[in-house]
């Protein structure tokens, strides 16, 4: 009965949205993208198939490249149920007028592989091979191989590479670009033993280039081993490869992260001596390094050098300076730079907001954070998972669970399904303050959207519901969770790094 009531509520919501459908036909605005994203996220999974809902709301003739890409982008950022996103992309492929873009295909592939639905991912690749072969690129191969390297074995990754070569990309001769993709799959997962094994095994078949060596160098950097970086750098030079600005950027970043700022500056000077001209990325990395070394005057000097060198500072450069200022705990200067970005039409991205929130949490507490939070909401900005979790944790620990609940509702309204760790924090905060009914509703929303609750959140809510005698509500959650688990096996998604 409860599940039937939920479907009836959704049907009413759908009828209201159908009245707005004529507006959609003439617009792919942010409002329409948000509306369709919300409908997909809110659709009761797995009680009803999504396809009929999409057909009633989006005529195939009205699909556009911009619209499909942006809906999939929202679903990806929102950690939505991957099978819903897949069904939406499959629906778009039914239209003869719609030509899928590589971006839409890659986003769908990324969503599926992130949730470890490799059978569905291979199914998608096979279909695209038959209908839109040009969308199969080194980037789509990289998405697939990187996730297989992360979640499966070394042998599975090599087997997938072989399948790509012999079956998926048949007719195309694999060369250095494809070899680089395979190496990158291991390097991005910091599996350097496996990366070296692949290099030693296959470098005679695929001629390495400077990009190959930079990928391996980047892998050593991600592993945090400066000695290994320098040893491999000298091996690279001995093999006859000429370092470029990417090579220097990687080495500079490695020293900055180890707080060896003097060594990073030495490399920067060497780079200029050999006429390997620094990029905005090079200087941005050094600004970060200066901030980590608590050398704020040098960070500002480097930032000012960007313009004097004829380069244009971007959001990344501003964020690097902002981070350096925040590290020095000068929140007045940080706020001034935040305003300057807006004045100079430099976009505030998630890193900008995350950095500011981090500084305000440490210095001004709940009042400062609340003020920026309200400003972010007014701008309709959607924070990424890391920021959502950080804010949820801070609100609940600051006894402002009302703000945590407000953030949850804002994200739901935007069609965003927060990460389960955010739900853990909110359920804990609500239950500890006796607001068990609201914790139940938030948990139910998560399950309705086809996303698993963690054992931690479920057990806590179970304890409080039993104490209150709300056994019907507990049984409803148990039924939804069990049904979802059968149709959608839980996957260990990315761990939140605070």
UniProtKB/TrEMBL annotation:
Superkingdom, natural source: Eukaryota
PPR repeat spans: 209-243, 244-278, 279-313, 314-348, 349-383
Pfam family name, one: PPR
Biological classification of the source: Eukaryota, Viridiplantae, Streptophyta, Embryophyta, Tracheophyta
Gene Ontology BP terms: mitochondrion organization; RNA processing
Entry keyword annotation includes Repeat: yes
Cross-referenced InterPro entries: Mito_RNA_Proc_CCM1, PPR_rpt, TPR-like_helical_dom_sf
Protein name: Pentatricopeptide repeat-containing At3g61360
Keyword vocabulary terms for this entry: Repeat
NCBIfam families: PPR
GO MF: mRNA binding
GO cellular component, one term: mitochondrion
Organism this protein belongs to: Olea europaea subsp. europaea
Entry similarity comment: Belongs to the PPR family. P subfamily.
């Amino acid at each position: 009965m409860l599940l039937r009531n939920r479907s009836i509520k959704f049907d009413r919501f759908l009828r209201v949205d159908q009245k707005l459908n004529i507006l959609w036909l003439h617009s792919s605005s942010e409002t329409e993208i948000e509306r369709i994203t919300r409908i997909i996220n809110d659709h009761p999974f797995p009680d009803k198939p999504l396809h009929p809902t999409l057909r009633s709301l989006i005529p195939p003739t009205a699909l556009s490249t911009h619209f499909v890409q942006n809906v999939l982008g929202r679903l990806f950022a929102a950690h939505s149920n991957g099978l819903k996103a897949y069904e939406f992309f499959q629906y778009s492929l039914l239209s003869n007028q719609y030509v899928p873009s590589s971006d839409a295909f890659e986003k769908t592939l990324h969503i599926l592989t992130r949730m470890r639905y490799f059978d569905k991912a291979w199914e998608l690749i096979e279909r695209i091979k038959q209908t839109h072969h040009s969308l199969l690129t080194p980037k789509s191969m990289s998405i697939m191989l990187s996730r297989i390297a992360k979640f499966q074995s070394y042998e599975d990754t090599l087997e997938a590479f072989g399948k790509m070569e012999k079956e998926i990309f048949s007719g195309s001769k694999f060369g250095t670009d494809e070899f680089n993709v395979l190496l990158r799959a291991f390097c991005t997962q910091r599996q350097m033993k496996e990366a070296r094994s692949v290099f030693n095994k296959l470098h005679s078949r695929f001629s390495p280039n400077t990009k190959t060596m930079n990928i391996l160098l980047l892998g050593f950097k991600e592993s945090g081993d400066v000695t290994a970086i320098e040893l491999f750098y000298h091996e690279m030079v001995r093999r006859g490869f000429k370092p470029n600005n990417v090579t220097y950027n990687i080495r500079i970043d490695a020293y900055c992260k180890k707080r060896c700022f003097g060594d990073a500056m030495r490399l920067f000077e060497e780079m200029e001596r050999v006429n390997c001209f620094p990029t905005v990325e090079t200087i941005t990395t050094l600004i970060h390094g200066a901030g980590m070394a608590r050398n704020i005057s040098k960070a500002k000097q480097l930032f000012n050098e960007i313009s004097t060198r004829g380069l244009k500072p971007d959001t990344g450069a501003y964020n690097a300076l902002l981070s350096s200022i925040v590290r020095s705990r000068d929140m007045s200067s940080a706020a001034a730079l935040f305003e300057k970005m807006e004045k100079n039409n430099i976009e505030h991205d998630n890193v900008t907001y995350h950095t500011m929130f981090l500084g305000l949490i440490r210095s001004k507490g709940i009042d400062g954070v609340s003020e920026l939070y309200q400003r972010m909401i007014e701008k309709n900005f959607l924070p990424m998972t890391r920021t959502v979790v950080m804010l949820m944790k801070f609100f609940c620990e600051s006894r402002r669970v009302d703000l945590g609940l407000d953030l949850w509702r804002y994200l739901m309204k935007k069609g965003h399904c927060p990460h389960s760790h955010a739900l853990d924090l909110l359920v804990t905060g609500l239950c500890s303050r006796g607001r068990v009914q609201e914790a139940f509703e938030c948990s139910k929303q998560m399950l309705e959207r086809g996303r698993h609750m963690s054992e931690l959140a479920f057990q806590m809510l179970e304890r409080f519901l039993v104490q209150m005698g709300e056994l019907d509500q507990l049984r409803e959650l148990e039924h939804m969770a069990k049904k979802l688990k059968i149709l959608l096996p839980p996957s260990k998604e990315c761990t939140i790094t605070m």
